[in-house]
Write the structure tokens for this entry.
Amino acid sequence: MAFADVREYTHLTDEEVEAIGAELDEIRAEIEASRGQADRDYILRVITLQRRLAAAGRITLFASFFPPAWLLGTALLGSAKILENMELGHNAMHGQWDWMNDPEIHSSNWEWDTTQPAEQWKHSHNYIHHQFTNVLGHDNDIGYGILRMSRDQKWSPYNLGQPVYNALLALFFEWGVALHDLDIEAIRKGKKDIPLLKKQLRQIRAKVGKQTLKDYVLYPALTGPFFLQTLSANFTANIIRNVWTYGIIFCGHFPDGAVHFTEEELEDETRAEWYLRQMLGSANFKGGKLLHIMSGQLGYQIEHHLFPDLPSNRYAQISTKVQDLCKRYDIPYTTGPLWKQYGQTLRTIMKLSLPNRRTEDNPAPLSPRQTRRLRDDERQIRRSELGKWSGAASA
Amino acid sequence: MTAPLIERSAALRRLRQLGKAMTTPLLPDDYLALINPLWSQRELRGRIEKVVPITDRAATLVIRPGWGWSFDHAPGQYIGIGVEIDGKFHWRSYSLSSVPLVEGRTVSITVKAMPEGFLSDHLVNGLEPGTIVRLASPQGDFVLPDPPPERMLFVVGGSGITPVMSILRTLERRGTIPDVVLAYSAVHEEDMMFLAELRELSEANPDFRFYERFTDSDGMLTPEQLDDVCPDWLERETWACGPGPMLDAFTDHYKRLGREDHIHVERFTLNAAGGEGAGGTVTFGVGGPTVEVDGATTLLEAGEKAGINMLFGCRMGICHTCDVPLASGRIRDLRSGNEHSEPNEYIQTCISVAAGDCTLTL
């Protein structure tokens, strides 16, 4: 079920909520003050690695007729695209590196290696998704207008096909992302501004043109007689990137434990409540350093949602502080191995393809304060006034 | 002016077009820069070749510019230099002291370490040869007309000597130093940059008269003293470069005598002569945050106050690091007072204010 108020779920007092907000502000200030050479060196290393991988992949694929070269080239190119989209593009467009004042690594200038124009991504993702995270009817990332991901979303027979839509979305994720900012739901309801739609479609067409020319015409043509082999390698590299990014992104807000909110939560929401909604609506996953780099540090989805514009290489360090804070205030901190998080997501997709009456509700896990005996200071203050009787007695 | 090779050759242009299509959304430069950091035109870059001390507190930086640089600056112009310190780029502007085209494939600037200037201090004392810096192309109209006037006066204070040095060296190299008077003030002898070179120059050229002024013993040069220093100053075209108060005093003096057309000044601060704008509501990015601004707050300052990470460089309208396209609305250029309202026109946020409501593309 969706919640109308973060307090309803966490059982925190107003003072506690504000104290949590202040602590998180402090973490932000600390990181901002300590950004420096080591962070710049990190991102430059990743950029160099990514460009070398891409160049190596393209060069290897000039021998795409030779199956081991085809495999190696595809793997190199696929991982270059993953690194570019996740650790570089997504994070740079969030403005994580804007503090360096370097026009080459800046949110206003970064264009990424995928079919969606950067400008539209910054609107649909940085603004709509990060501002209205997990609020039903506002956050288009809850099922992307294609899948039903909450029991509070209305079921229709269309949803019976969810397992198929999901598989197609995984394979062609890049194209789903390209159309994301058009807001399919608004178009369906006839609410979309037509001149804006036309402008967006023009932008998408231009970007798609460049991307397909590069991957499906130019490089295959340069390898001459092996046109088809190179084309299939590039296609496969794009699919690998699609499936991987889809998997990582679906583990961000759909595993059990990440809760949804209703519109009422947005009313008079304070900065501290916004922080709480970000924590409660996001899910992490555990893994080694390589896994985190290849997923753009989105295994630290909670930290990313709290501080979307702090450098991604700092999320691991922020995470220990956030976990400590969650423990002290009994706030759930959702995490688990990648396979388990994705398993839960997949189960929800399957289950919600059926109407609510056909499936069992598995309620959001209770917050720690609902499952154990409360400490005295966590209880409602007992009413001290005793009414007419005590007044009469003391008189 | 000779265009770079890449502009002149049709074959190279086509090759670059193909390279762009192959590397989209990046540029071929982004891959070539992996081999040599100077092989990129995305941002103008340069490599520090030498740091030559001039005085205790000043040094000349010899810089080898990368691709995209044309060595045809006019003597007296300045460039922007962006240096990375602890992960962050900082920008300043300095006059070129080198002569166009002749000193190999390098340019040089002379920097004086200012007591409170952490960047100038870093440039003089902390820059290792081999460091890659960012550059902004030469600009400025503190230049000589061609042919130069027959009689000239240069009034210079402190590090204001650098553009004048470039002008004098160019004149000398052409073998035609005409009738020139240089009135150059510095705090004391050790602080005077290029002193030996200037003395040599005046010995070798009878038409070049060099007046040295040390302000800790002689005090500041005032416009009234010009009659003694250079009795025929009224018959000369004047170029002045130095601290703001000195420039103000001289321009006022010339204006009083109706000679404001005969003095050319170079200031290294934003001169907001264009007047204020009307102010209005500024939107940062279509659908992005909005702020109310008055007509004196630059769009860059307004964005920074609103918590937006805006790119910036010199903050005085020189380097174009802060340029963003204007989506809609009207803005005013603080320096000239010109208003711009062409959609998608790039505007310099550091010297622009709102002239009514406007939206920037970020």
Notes: Residues 382-395 of chain A have pLDDT under 50 and may be disordered.
